[in-house]
Structures are given as structure tokens and as C-alpha cells.
């Protein structure tokens, strides 16, 4: 099942193979006054749908009722400019890509005193030898591989991918060497062209090991694609009329 955050802040729900026929939308309730969700993703520790607001607050979202429950606030105000989020299934941290190419990791709500702490992981830049080196990235969606809802601290390696809407490409993240924090995912490596025109309203999520889904909204409709992580090529699955999605989150399987 695929969930999406609409341009009007509602929660959309549909099947990947019969999206138009199965589509339902639900109002998201319980956010603070004036708060808006920037992005949503399923937490790999328990599988709850989670959203980050534009002012840096994390909420869980009931996938049936749309009720949002506050969990924790980010300790760093800059995370409030968040544009893209995704849970790292190996580290149990929330990757946050913000305005001005900033890159953070956020500790979600836990019983630990570190809940809400933020690590600044540097500026997102293309690898010096990459074909797009020197270009300013415009990342509008991101997702980690190997995402399952039964998180384990020793989870196997994961890879972070993102979509650049200016270049219409898929990129793979690697980490800069010292003195940057380990696991910073700040270096961008071009995988290949999407073959479609990405927009600001583009979503990306990965089901399980490497089953990738891409949503692109243009005008008043959204097109859902499967995505080849080795080449970047998008393959049409379906078009959903009268729906504009800002992001998508695929319900996590159990490993």
C-alpha cells in the first residue's frame, strides 16, 4: 500500500497497481496551529507513518484516521526548513535534507535523552569527479534501501538515493571522509537520467530491499513509476487524475 502527502496536506492512500481505482484521501488532524507537514515516511523501528513539519516537529500519523500525534521536536532550528526526509534503517536516524543544500540526521523519539538531537552532516555536493560536479543540487525526494519495519541495530548496509529535479536524474549518496561525521551521506553520485521530468512535487520511496517507487505530480495529476536503482530509469505504472502529491511513503514489509 502506498501513502502520499497531498499538496493540500491530506493523507492519500492507494494500491501501487490500481491507484486510481483504490484512491482515498483523509484529512490529517492534530497538528499545531499553523503547522504544515514537509514530508512523510514510515519509521523502520515499528513501522509507524511519521511526518516532519516545516518547523521541525515529528508526528506519528494514524494511517486510517489521519490523526497526528506529536513525538519530539528537533533540537536544531535549521531542520525547520526541511524539504525531504527518510528513515535510515541501519542507524535508526531520520535523514533530513533542508533548504540551501543542508543535510542533517535527527534522532527520533526514543526513551533516550538523545531524542530530538540533530547532527549536521555538511553540505550536499556532487563528487569532484562526477559528471555534474560544481552544479547546485536540487534534491526533492530521497529513500534508503533495505527498509523493513522490524529494525535491528545490526541491520545490514543501506544506500541512500535522491532525485534531483533540475537535472532529472537519480543520485546515490556516499559519505565524505574526515573531518565530516561518519555516515554523513553528503556526497552525490550521478546514477543516470530518470527519463521523466521531475518537479518540486516528486516523491521517492523504497519497499524492502530495493523495490523503488517514484511519484511525479504536474498540474492536477500524479504519475506513479517504478524506478531502476541501477540506471535511474523510470517505468510508468499508472496515472492518478485530480491528485497532486508532494511525497510518497510505501508501507514497510516485515523482514
From TrEMBL:
Pfam families: DUF4394. It comes from the Bacteria. Residues 10-248 form the DUF4394 domain. This is DUF4394 domain-containing protein. It comes from Deinococcus psychrotolerans.
Amino acid at each position: 500500500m502506498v501513502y502520499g502527502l497531498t499538496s493540500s496536506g491530506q493523507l492519500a492512500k492507494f494500491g501501487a497497481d490500481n491507484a486510481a481505482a483504490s484512491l482515498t484521501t483523509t484529512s490529517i488532524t492534530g497538528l499545531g496551529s499553523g503547522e504544515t507537514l514537509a514530508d512523510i515516511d514510515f519509521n523502520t523501528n515499528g513501522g509507524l507513518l511519521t511526518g516532519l513539519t516545516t518547523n521541525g516537529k515529528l508526528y506519528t500519523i494514524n494511517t486510517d484516521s489521519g490523526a497526528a500525534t506529536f513525538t519530539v521536536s528537533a533540537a536544531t532550528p535549521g531542520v525547520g526548513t526541511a524539504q525531504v526526509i527518510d528513515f535510515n534503517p541501519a542507524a535508526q536516524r531520520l535523514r533530513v535534507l533542508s533548504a540551501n543544500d543542508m543535510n542533517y540526521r535527527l534522532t527520533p523519539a526514543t526513551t533516550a535523552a538523545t531524542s530530538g538531537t540533530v547532527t549536521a552532516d555538511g553540505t550536499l555536493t556532487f563528487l569532484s569527479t562526477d559528471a555534474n560536479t560544481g552544479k547546485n543540487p536540487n534534491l526533492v525526494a530521497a529513500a534508503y534501501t533495505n527498509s523493513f519495519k522490524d529494525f535491528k541495530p545490526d541491520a545490514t548496509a543501506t544506500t541512500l538515493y535522491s532525485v534531483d529535479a533540475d537535472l532529472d536524474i537519480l543520485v546515490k549518496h556516499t559519505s565524505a571522509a574526515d573531518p565530516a561525521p561518519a555516515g554523513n551521506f553528503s556526497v552525490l553520485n550521478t546514477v543516470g537520467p530518470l527519463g521523466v521530468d521531475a518537479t518540486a512535487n516528486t516523491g521517492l520511496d523504497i519497499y524492502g530491499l530495493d523495490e523503488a517507487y517514484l511519484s511525479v505530480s504536474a498540474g492536477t495529476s500524479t504519475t506513479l513509476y517504478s524506478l531502476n536503482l541501477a540506471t535511474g530509469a523510470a517505468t510508468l505504472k499508472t496515472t492518478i487524475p485530480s491528485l497532486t502529491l508532494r511525497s510518497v511513503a510505501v508501507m514497510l514489509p516485515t523482514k
